[in-house]
């Protein structure tokens, strides 16, 4: 049996350096379980490492992809795996998920409850866990919250869950006009990134800003945020670094999900998802656009379209 996988053997633009290769499946290593992949989303966190942004900690050749949904296909004889053949799981913290089969440690696999749809389960890791952990670290009850890149999946969850946790107000900053209706539908106030006066006003009232953009937008918000406020930097979609402006009264605190994974036990890891599934049952997520693995270039091209309203997903 062969395995098709999207590899990158050097850093660069994903459409240029990724390649789909097929090779015979290697024997399953002791202690691992083989998962046949069903689908995997395309997130910024999948594409940014391919560009070389994290070359200080990863080195090609690597299979791309950090999350996705599959079913248990093979369990070694004598294994203590708690899952059964055919069971739906998230094969996380293993080799890349953009391939037909993933061999993973069952301790870090996450079982999917029977009532969770595939469309929810396949994106049940990166964005939900990041949003949930940030709201745990920086509670929002009775606070005025501003969220940048508000059309993104993670920001959408931050807005919904911040309101549910009792935030006094939630504002979502958008760049593409097509995002405005979706932001207001979630109950947040939508702010056009191009409206400097409105940005300044929102920043002046903010207790917390969750920022995934960086660059000029982060600098502008920081320059107008009040004393005691915090900007949580969890992404750099602009590709531009930033620092605290002179005379700024706010503080910058940084969040990267990787930092939380380095010390978490397998038991606590499973507990995180026990908390997440009930939230995801009630959450509003963007619709998906499904692409066959062979059409991966089309999927990434679609991902890069400004103002897109659907999450691109690779189907295996």
From TrEMBL:
Keyword presence, Mitochondrion: no
One annotated GO molecular function: NADPH binding
Keywords: NADP, Oxidoreductase
Origin superkingdom: Bacteria
Residues annotated as domain Enoyl reductase (ER): 13-314
Pfam families membership: ADH_N
InterPro entries: ADH-like_N, ER, GroES-like_sf, NAD(P)-bd_dom_sf
Protein name: Alcohol dehydrogenase
């Amino acid at each position: 049996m062969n395995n098709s996988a999207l590899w990158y053997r050097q850093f660069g633009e994903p459409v240029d350096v990724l390649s789909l290769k097929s090779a015979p499946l290697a024997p399953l290593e002791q202690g691992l379980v083989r998962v046949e992949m069903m689908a995997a989303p395309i997130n910024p966190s999948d594409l940014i490492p391919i560009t070389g942004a994290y070359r200080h900690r990863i080195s090609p050749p690597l299979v791309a992809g950090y999350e996705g949904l599959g079913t248990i296909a093979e369990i070694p004889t004598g294994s203590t795996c708690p899952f059964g053949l055919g069971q739906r799981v998230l094969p996380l913290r293993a080799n890349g998920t953009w391939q037909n089969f993933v061999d993973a440690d069952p301790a870090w696999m996450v079982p999917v409850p029977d009532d969770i749809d595939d469309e929810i389960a396949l994106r049940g890791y990166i964005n939900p866990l990041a949003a949930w952990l940030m709201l745990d670290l920086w509670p929002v009850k009775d606070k005025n919250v501003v969220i940048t890149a508000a059309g993104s999946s993670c920001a959408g969850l931050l807005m919904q869950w911040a309101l549910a946790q009792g935030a006094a107000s939630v504002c979502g900053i958008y760049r593409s006009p097509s995002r405005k209706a979706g932001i207001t539908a979630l109950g947040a106030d939508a702010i056009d990134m191009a409206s400097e006066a409105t940005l300044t006003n929102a920043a002046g009232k903010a207790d917390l800003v969750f920022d995934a953009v960086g660059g000029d937008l982060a600098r502008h918000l920081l320059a107008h945020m009040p004393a005691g406020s915090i900007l949580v930097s969890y992404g750099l979609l602009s590709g531009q670094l930033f620092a605290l402006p002179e005379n700024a009264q706010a503080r910058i605190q940084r969040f990267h999900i990787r930092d939380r994974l380095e010390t978490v036990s397998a038991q606590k890891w499973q507990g995180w998802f026990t908390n997440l599934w009930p939230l995801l049952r009630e959450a509003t997520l963007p619709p998906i656009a499904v692409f066959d693995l062979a059409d991966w270039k089309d999927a990434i091209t679609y991902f890069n379209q400004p103002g897109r309203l659907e999450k691109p997903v690779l189907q295996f």
